[in-house]
Amino acid sequence: MEDLNDKNFEEFIKKHKIAIIDFYADWCGPCQMMKPVFHEIAEKFKGKAGFERINVDNCEIAQKLGVMSIPCFIIFKNGKEVDRIVGGMHKTDFENKLKQKLE
Questions:
Q1: Domain range spanning residue 98?
Q2: What are phi and psi of 66, to 5 degrees?
Q3: Gyration radius of the chain's alpha carbons
Q4: Which 8-state DSSP code applies to residue 3?
Q5: Which domain CATH number covers 83?
Q6: Which residues are catalytic?
Q7: pTM, 2 dp
Q8: In sequence order, what are the beta bridge partners of 54?
């Protein structure tokens, strides 16, 4: 999993019917806590959605999308935002929230 940036973000969310983007920062404790959880979930739901990360310190897209708190997981369907999950949480809770969107 490579980080997206301002140049390849649009292409990624349009390429996948469902795309889940993790907006994070290296200095953010909850973001670092969610990193392995996000990777596990991405592996589990491989083929059902595209999973990628964006470092909010290295791009402008987070500001354009109004990301105010991190970690922030934005779910896109057919290139359009359909939901956001904000903050760190237990893996089971995160997985259950995503399952609702992937079905």
A1: 9-102
A2: 75, 30
A3: 12
A4: B
A5: 3.40.30.10
A6: 28, 31
A7: 0.92
A8: 23
